Amino acid sequence: MSNAFADRLIETVRKHDAPLCVGLDPFADKIPALFGDLRQDAAATLLKFGSSVIEVAAKHAGVLKPQLGLFEQFGEMGYATARMLTEYARSSGMLVILDAKRGDIGTTAEGYARATLGEKPGFDADCVTVNPYMGKDTLAPFVALAAQKQKGVAVLVRTSNPGAGDFQDLQVGGAPVWQRVAQMLAPEVSQLRGASGWSGLMAVAGATYPEEARTLREAMPHALFLVPGYGAQGASAADAVAGFVPGPRGREGGVVNASRSVTYPQAAQNAKSMNEWRAAIGEAMSAAAAELRTACAP
Amino acid sequence: MSNAFADRLIETVRKHDAPLCVGLDPFADKIPALFGDLRQDAAATLLKFGSSVIEVAAKHAGVLKPQLGLFEQFGEMGYATARMLTEYARSSGMLVILDAKRGDIGTTAEGYARATLGEKPGFDADCVTVNPYMGKDTLAPFVALAAQKQKGVAVLVRTSNPGAGDFQDLQVGGAPVWQRVAQMLAPEVSQLRGASGWSGLMAVAGATYPEEARTLREAMPHALFLVPGYGAQGASAADAVAGFVPGPRGREGGVVNASRSVTYPQAAQNAKSMNEWRAAIGEAMSAAAAELRTACAP
To answer: Which of B69, B105, B138 is closest, CB to CB, to A112?
Structure first.
């Protein structure tokens, strides 16, 4: 298959036979003491915890999603650590969707596109999440760089948080705002389509709204979905893949993110050694992959 | 007056007798060679250019707006430099509105709030720009931290870029989305009101749409406006203050940002020495302040 991001993503999902994306969300009150204290020694703790998660995740999932805001709270060292972990995950064979939710006008959007998708000193991530509120011209620099570098752009369409509907659900001529966003992205979806037929213009489609995911799939038949909300946020595996469609090996059409449920399972919190911790998160990732595999079975 | 951000902002505007906000936007192709080559030696060039702009800006304007995306393109060193320049501007007596346009769900928004408004290792900026698309719960951590630390939050309502209308202008029951955003922010505006009557819940209101600015003022009578689009983006001083209202010393109600027109004026590009450069940008800032002062005159 080609090297387009959409093709690389669908290929790794098929290889793992599960659409699991592991979210890397560093929380000071959840990282086990084995890794040090995030409040005292942020960079070392972030690097050790993050790289250890990646080592296990690479066996169970094709995609990693670092949550940049949780790194930035530790300042420039947190920002640098997120970049190093992105590099480490990619060198471990994972695709990285950098969850940065950027969005800005022209020249600044170019800056953010270079910062996230561009090579060093950029993150050189495979895909970045972006916010569409400011308009399509603000997405253009991300899409242009993605097209040039065979990368992806994941646009917030219908998010999974409690207040997601405040603005996304406002009714515009009989349809919610998020459907209009989806419709308006058709040219960008076409622009980033790979040989698989799927597009690297991804839509963020919250798993907590499975009905909407099906509607969104009709509006965006070729967009890969990035589905948050599975696991700790309460959505089931079946809900999470509601927007997927039949493919050569079962239902496909994106990746489902799990963060807290697979990186901070209870058994890992109580682990006495790194080996115990690795076994605990490996088991949680394996279980999540199996659950998603079943939900996608033909 | 109190120490609330809104009061500090309106006080410095009154002191300078002009609502000028200087935008700090580092462009590799615009920074004069006097400061080094941004592509070769990013950190030193950013620090030297940024601190030199601040030294002049502090004489002409009360507020500085660093555009974080243009720093992030230089990686963690760019990110660190933006933080150091924020600290330098504040120690020079300026208020800093960090233009980061962040927005994310609960715990991640808390991370971004700490990163931007929190103390070291955060930026400790006076105010941060945020994106409302994901819903009001995603703004809450910023507003909570701002309330606690007497700081501000500038919400993107009606931006100044060409594509701003794509989603912001979609009609919802006879009014555009941006008006609904404005209406829904009423509780947050109340929460951040200072003794002056103005609120540190600012609205970003593009100067390229003066009619909308007047409508927005009706919807948000107490919100201070952050007005982009003046100068290089084409709006006049009169357009820029269209949403301002009569105050004790003339029209007031926010700050107007000028970036390229005051930090890269033609005379500065041709400067042979730092003194010439300082004189050139000082003149451009003085002219912008005078133009805004005239537009605000009672």
So the answer is: B69
CATH code where residue B252 lies? 3.20.20.70
Smallest CA-to-CA distance from B233 within B164, B155, B152 is with: B164
Residues of B in contact with A109 (CB under 8 A): 69
Record: contact A75-B122, CB cut-off 8 A: yes
- Give the separation between CA B52 and CA B145, rounded to whole angstroms: 31
Full domain range(s) for residue B160: 5-296
Dihedral, CA atoms, A60, A65, A71, A73, nearest 10 degrees? Answer: -130
User: Does A101 qualify as catalytic in the annotation?
Assistant: yes
A69 → closest Cβ in B99, B112, B133? B112
Q: Is the ipTM of this complex over 0.90?
A: yes
Tens-digit pLDDT profile for residues A24-35: 999 989 999 999
Structural domain total, chain B: 1
| 0.95 surpassed by pTM | yes
Count of A–B CB contacts within 8 Å?
A: 204
With an 8 Å Cβ cutoff, are A74 and B120 in contact?
A: no
